[in-house]
Amino acid sequence: MHPREVGQRGTGDLGVQGLGRGVFTIIAVMFASRTAVAHGKHVLCEKPLTLSLQHAQELVDKARDKKLFFMEGFWTRFFPAVKLLREELSKGSVGKVNIVRAAFCSPTAVLERMRKRELGGGALMGSGCYLIQFADLIFKERPQKIVALGQLSDEAVDTSAAIILTYSEGRMAVLCYNNGSVLGNNTLTIHGSKANIELHSPFHCPTTITLPSGETKVFPLPETPYTYNWANSNGFVYEAECVRKCLQQGQLTECPDMPHEDSLNIMAILDEVRRQLGVVYDNLKD
């Protein structure tokens, strides 16, 4: 069966409908996004948006100029557990957020796209960006200070790092990642002045959350007849459904849950972390 047919059947089973064109396309290459925007197409681009803030800004500006819907695909933000986390933060259930602590360890170093510098490789762009996007989601501002220490492979891409982001009023995000480990207990904990919130592993596609009240809530994933290479991949339906709704409204050029500003803030942090780690991509050299 052609991959497009598989995609059409899969999205149909998950309750995601097309927009009358009968075509479902997944764009997972940042350069394809530039071409799509140039041809007047709405775009959902897999993270990371680009390899640099400069390129991300150019892409966002082009989409805005053409009044096209454009969104970076951080699927994490659309899981029900994450939406509940945001509601709890908005209510002030944890009080002042003092520390965000998270780790992302996985055995992905063997993947070609993670190993090769010419493919934009490195664990920061593959998995570390999930940590950065959560810090951005929670603190809603750019950090005042960024400190990153890590290790590079023989191919000059990062394999692991510890990152500390310092925000106003002394608030911090303490983050670490490694792509040469067995799958870890990848949880995310928010420590507040009143209470804590924890997203259970895997925090980047979570189905379980422990609330400030101590209650643990579980959100079962939609059932599908398909098998996937990565955990909880049927959770992509949440992101797809949000994009469908935005397109059907007709006037939205960005998604409120993943706005352009957040993508640019995340990319600014990624740029600085990458600089401190010493990862330089060929197409970004001066």
UniProtKB/TrEMBL annotation:
<dbReference type="Pfam" id="PF01408">
    <property type="entry name" value="GFO_IDH_MocA"/>
</dbReference>
<dbReference type="InterPro" id="IPR050984">
    <property type="entry name" value="Gfo/Idh/MocA_domain"/>
</dbReference>
<dbReference type="Pfam" id="PF22725">
    <property type="entry name" value="GFO_IDH_MocA_C3"/>
</dbReference>
<protein>
    <recommendedName>
        <fullName>Trans-1,2-dihydrobenzene-1,2-diol dehydrogenase</fullName>
        <ecNumber>1.1.1.179</ecNumber>
        <ecNumber>1.3.1.20</ecNumber>
    </recommendedName>
</protein>
<dbReference type="GO" id="GO:0047837">
    <property type="term" value="F:D-xylose 1-dehydrogenase (NADP+) activity"/>
</dbReference>
<feature type="domain" description="Gfo/Idh/MocA-like oxidoreductase N-terminal">
    <location>
        <begin position="34"/>
        <end position="74"/>
    </location>
</feature>
<feature type="domain" description="GFO/IDH/MocA-like oxidoreductase">
    <location>
        <begin position="84"/>
        <end position="198"/>
    </location>
</feature>
<dbReference type="GO" id="GO:0000166">
    <property type="term" value="F:nucleotide binding"/>
</dbReference>
<dbReference type="InterPro" id="IPR000683">
    <property type="entry name" value="Gfo/Idh/MocA-like_OxRdtase_N"/>
</dbReference>
<keyword id="KW-0560">Oxidoreductase</keyword>
<comment type="similarity">
    <text>Belongs to the Gfo/Idh/MocA family.</text>
</comment>
<dbReference type="GO" id="GO:0047115">
    <property type="term" value="F:trans-1,2-dihydrobenzene-1,2-diol dehydrogenase activity"/>
</dbReference>
<dbReference type="InterPro" id="IPR036291">
    <property type="entry name" value="NAD(P)-bd_dom_sf"/>
</dbReference>
<dbReference type="InterPro" id="IPR055170">
    <property type="entry name" value="GFO_IDH_MocA-like_dom"/>
</dbReference>
